[in-house]
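Exercise 7. Given the components listed, write out the predicted structure of the assembled complex. Treat all entries as one system.
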Amino acid sequence: MARTREFDVDAAVTAAMDAFRRKGYEGTSMRDLSEATGLGSGSIYAAFGSKDGLYLAVLDLYRQRYAAPIVDLLRSGSDAREVIREVFVGAVDDITGDGRHLACLIVGASMERAQQDLRVAERLRSTTQSLELALHDLLAEAQARGQIKPDRSASDLAGFLVTSLQGLRVMGAINPDRALLTRYAEVALTCLD
Amino acid sequence: MARTREFDVDAAVTAAMDAFRRKGYEGTSMRDLSEATGLGSGSIYAAFGSKDGLYLAVLDLYRQRYAAPIVDLLRSGSDAREVIREVFVGAVDDITGDGRHLACLIVGASMERAQQDLRVAERLRSTTQSLELALHDLLAEAQARGQIKPDRSASDLAGFLVTSLQGLRVMGAINPDRALLTRYAEVALTCLD
DNA sequence: GCGATACTTTGTCGATCGTTCCAGATAGCC
DNA sequence: GGCTATCTGGAACGATCGACAAAGTATCGC
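Answer.
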């Protein structure tokens, strides 16, 4: 054996994620990524193979760190309306939270990369699908319990909720007004009544 | 006087719009734009000043050609539910219409350019605002007539509807399934009931 | 402590970026 | 029909792009 990798891969991917969220895929150069991660380009290529490779790693980390906890929350067995509201509030917080203007990686990837890179498209589909599925299961059970009206299909409702979340990301990029976004989210939630 | 401009500016901007929608702002090179418009780079710079200038012209054309007609439709005096449904159906058609995979310029600009170029951000805000306003006026009148429940603010409903439209664009980029998007749109429209 | 190993850094590669400039082409005015 | 002003297309600019190879350096097993 020999020398071990010195830098923290997760920290580097996190820094790269920030860079990509700020400037998009094409707008972020390898130089930007070097500065953001504090690594030489050689190290980046050794660890991730290419700019695309690093971007895919960023997507995977995003899913693991942000999407998965939401799915877990939805499957935690709490009251459906309450936990869904929590997810929406969390999304609005995330959008307007810090003033760093970090766009949503998922929405950005959908617009900029999904048509160019099949592996990106696949990850996006998988991420939204797992979110939709968790929502579907939660809603279907709530409907069975009579907590939510059964006259609309649980999968349609789930898809609509994900659509609304994506829409909030876009609206937040145009006008990051927390109070406004919260009111829009409230309207979306009334579809469950 | 002397020689007059030969090419059709509108046609050139339209071709550039297609290019930008397909590959995004950073992903589209001047070479791409030259090929798309059929113009030499000299002509492009003479007419638009820069790549940014051409992009702004594209945004303005988009607003004039796609956003303005929607606003007109909303203000045409037709039944509120009916005309709003028409807008949503039109949006789904636009998203899934041709197989050319043209992303929404507005959503793309929001993600990629709004933070970088203030003039882009301003145009985006203005475009969504005029859409929200038209929806608000339509809904407020429908509420006054008793056609729509008055217990939710017309401006919140309007903002929510725009949010849903943006969300549909994103979802369409991830999975351009017309039937699916239509069902999600249907759920959104139930918020008016 | 030494050799072997593999990570990090640096410098540089050809290609391509957005932009500019120039020579040739073309249309209006006398 | 010549003159001139303007548009056109393409060549060329420096800068920067993503990618890579080689040199330097630190860590491991022995």
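Discussion: Residues 1-4, 6, 29-31, 41-42, 45, 50-51 of chain A lie near DNA strand D (CB under 10 Å from a C1'). Chain A touches chain B through 48 residues (CB under 8 Å).
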